[in-house]
Structure formats: C-alpha cells, structure tokens
Give the backbone structure.
Amino acid sequence: MWLLIFVVWLVMWAGGSYWYLFGKPSPFSIESVRPPGPREYDQKKRDKVIKQGFSVDKVPKDLDVIVIGSGIGGLTVAATLAKVGKKVLVLEQHDQSGGCCHTYVEKGFEFDVGLHYIGQLHENSLLRIAFDQITEGQLEFVELDQHFDTIQIGLGEEKREYTIFTGKTEMEAHLKKQFPDDVAAIETFFRIMKVSAKKTHYLATLKLIPKWLALFLVKTRIAHLFSPIFTLSGTGATDLVSTLTSNKDLHVIFSYLFYGVPPKDSSIVINALLIHHYKRGAYYPRGGASEISYHIIPVIQKSGGNVLVRAPVTQILVNKEGAAYGVKVKKGQEEVEVRAPVVISNCGIFTTFQKLLPPEISMKQDVQDRLDMMRHGRGSFLVFSGFDATQEELGIVSTNFWLFKNNDMDTSMDEFFALSKEDAPENIPMMFITFPSAKDPESKKRHPGKSCMTILTMVKYEWFEEWKDTAVRKRGDEYHNYKMRYANQLFAWACTIFPKLREKLVFQDVATPLTNMHYLGAQRGAMYSAEHNLDRFHAEAVARNRCNTPVKNLYISGQDVFSCGIAGALHGGLLCASTVLDHIVYIDLLFLKKKLKKQKAKELALLAKKIE
C-alpha cells in the first residue's frame, strides 16, 4: 500500500516537474527572427514609437499586465510576455521610452545616458539570442575595437596606463604582458571569472525554485557542494585579490568597472563578471541606444499592448485581500485608474515599496523586511560635452577611459564619500570617459561634423539634496555653480588625455542625482538602482531577493532583481517573466541556442563542401 502511494506520488511529482519545465509554450522561436529592416532616420516617425504620450484612449482594453517603467528590464519582461500572447501596457514617466537606454539630442548632439557598451553579444550567445528574440532580429550591434578599455592610475609623472583587450585568450595574455610578475595572480583571477560566468545560473536558480527549497539548500550548505559560486558570491573583492597579489595597480584592474561600491564592500563574483562580460567583445547598438526601445516596442504592440510615455504612476492599487489590481496614472491635474490582474514594477524596489504602495501596505512587516535587505545606491554624476569637430580632428576613439587618482580604491572612495558638500567637487578620485559618436558608425550620417563625450562619476545624493524640491532647469544659480565645479574638474581631467577637446567645445550639459531622479525616476539619482554591496550577494540574500513581492500579483523586474547594468537589468526582466509565467524561459533560450548552433554547424559544413 505504502509502495503504491509512493509510486503515485513519484509519478505526479515527475509529471508536474516536466510540465513546469517543458509543458508550457515557449515565447521564443527561430522563426520570429527576421533580417534587419532599413534604418529609420526620420525622427518624427521614430517619435511615434518611442514618444507616444499617455491618454485614456490609447490604453488597450482587457489588459493582462501593467509594467511600470520602460527601462530594459521593463521592456524585456513586457516583450517576453507579449510573445506568449499577453496584452501588456508599459507606462513611462519620462517623455520618451528606454530608461537608461534612451538618448537625448541637444544642439545637434546626441548623448547616451546610461548605455555605453555591452558585452556577451557574440554570435549565438545567450544575451544575443535574448536581444534577437525581444526585437525579432531588428537590433544590430557594432563590435568595438579589440582595445576597448584604457585604465590610467595616478596623475602627472606618476601616471601609469594599462590597456584591456577583448578576446577569448587575448584578454588574459595581454594582461600578463603588462604584469609579468603577477602571472599566477592573473591566472587565478581568470579562473574565478570563468567559474563566475559559467555558474551564475546557479544563483539565478535560487530565485526560480520555491523559496523554502532555495533556503534549505543554502542554509544546509548542500548548494555549496555543487559549486564554489555560492561561497564566492559572498566573498569580498579586496579580501580575495589581496591573497593573490600585493600589486595595488592590479587590484584596481580587477575592480575598475566601478558602480559606487568600494571593492572591499563588493562581491568578487560581480567584479569578475563585469570584466568577463567583455571577454568575447564589446559592442554598441548601431544607430544609438534608442534603437533598443524603438525595436522592442513593436513586439509588445503585436499582442495588443502598448508603451506610453508622460505617464507617471502615482500609486499601485491594492484591494482588501492585499492583491495588486492596477495603478493610478497622473494625467494633467487628474489621476486615471488603469487596471490589470498583474502589475510589474521596473522602477526600483525603494520607489515601488516606499512611494507607490498605499501607506497601510508599505508599512507591513513583510514589506519592510524586504526593504531592509537593500540599501540605497550612490548617485551618478554625468557631464555631456558636444564638439564642433570630427572624431579624427579631436583624436578620439571608441576606446573607453577609466581614470583613478591613485591605486587604493577602497581608501579613496571612503574618503571621498566622507567629504563635506563643499570639499567634494575638487576631490573626485575617479571617472569614466566614453565617446558615443566614435562608437556608432552611423553617427557621422546622423550628426555630420559633430562629436560628443560623456563623463561619469559617482557622488553622494546628500550633496545635492538641498535642491530636491526645485524644478528641473530652474534650480537657481547656486545649484548651477555647484554642479559646474564638479563638471569643470572632470572636463579638465579629460583634457589632459585629449587636449583638443577644450578648443572645440561648443555645448555642455550636466546631470546630477537630481537630474537622474527627474528624467530616469532613479531613486536618489542612483542609476545602478539599489546598492550592490556584499551583503546583497550572500547566497541566502540572493535566494530571498526574488521577483515575487509580499503583495500578491505585484512583481519586481530590472536591476534590483539580480545585478546592475544593461545585461543585469535584461536578466532581471527574464527572471520576472519566468516568475509571472511560472515557466523558466531560460530553458527555452537554451534549447534555442542549441538549435542555432546546430544550424550554424550545418551551414559551415555546406560551405566547406562547396569550397572543396
């Protein structure tokens, strides 16, 4: 009798597992991808797609899902759900869609605000396949020069310069040439990079399996028996690299892709993943970052959905049973209710829980417990500069530059963030320089004779907080003069590398944390959303931080689900889609990857026969 019960249970469990993993229709297919169509240069036609303003008559009837925020995480989950027939409405508070993937044009110059380059887009990579699916093959990428990053440490005569190359074997080999006394340290770090890249899906799995099971596997350390990734994710970057080498310059190389967290407070896995991300090449969207939303939106519209801008969500509607059932959208002086059985927030966990939920819901203990898992990220500060000169005349390149005043990132970042508001502008310890116009070959067609540069560094929101209640572009002379103190320091530093910039400068704009709050909806101006500190990446925290929320039918997407950046946010969207559909879409992507590889192998075999 007991044997019969066990057999029946086993069959039911096996059948249920098979149905969960393989029994539901895949959103993805080879057939949905088609060759890229002609590039659309007419801005008015483009605006009809990426700048469609909110009005009640444009809201589709009988919605299945509402997504708050049109960043890449929101667009990814929306497009994935649309590809299984869901009618999805994406609401964006800015006047154009895309979030950190949007661009803005001023005085004939086009600037990217958050997308500077992307990796892991080589043929048949998982990320490339995902992009192809959510744009149906319409988004094209340009591969940048093999020398994609330059790192400068120190100032004046003490300045040292290192170059980072892409390449499956070239990246490591090139680094060894520059650090011949630290070959063993580099080899060990690259092994950590490999483990981090190949086993990160184990961490993602913790978010997809039942939470009780994920916590059981982590707390009993059974999970740790499968892979060192569970230990590495909770290991501090400085602690680990200090065991490999005493060379502080090399310490910087291992953590140079900064996101506002000192290496001592960051996970070695995240820092390793950021470098590994570009191992197989660095890429930029052909036609600029706005091409991303431009080509995803039609996929959402195919299933009857839409993406509407100038649609600030003021509240998530929650019923008496504690379930989300829609949102309120501000339209002029009124608020419009838009309803759907599923609500997904792509605007960050703090904004979602602290600003959009009704007070009686946001104060509940389970919501507060979820908030306590995260800390606010550092604010971003950007300088956008336009030049009346070509790339060749300025001597600029597609290579990015990362500048550090010294090789002690931990101390310099701690000291900088401890400074007073008055002392901070003249003591910036690091910055990033990128030239969007030099990365996109079509920039010369769209903006002939013009070049642009974006500078990025991290700052404290508190230094700008006194102006938080003022209106954008109307914050007064004191605010303008204060932000220009930062901008002038950063621009002068850039001119030490590219001296021709100053004489050709004709336009300059500055974005502070307050700017990012206004245009991107970034809480406290943190473009990388919640802080990526070490506590967040301990295995148990990873298991607890998932797309589900304590509010029924409300889900989280984007950077706060797993990690920062365009790729991190996109994966946040895929994880969210998996949760909403109760179906792991990554399995579909992996099957698709296998099919594409077989298809490629057949094509190569046929080509070889023809050559013979």
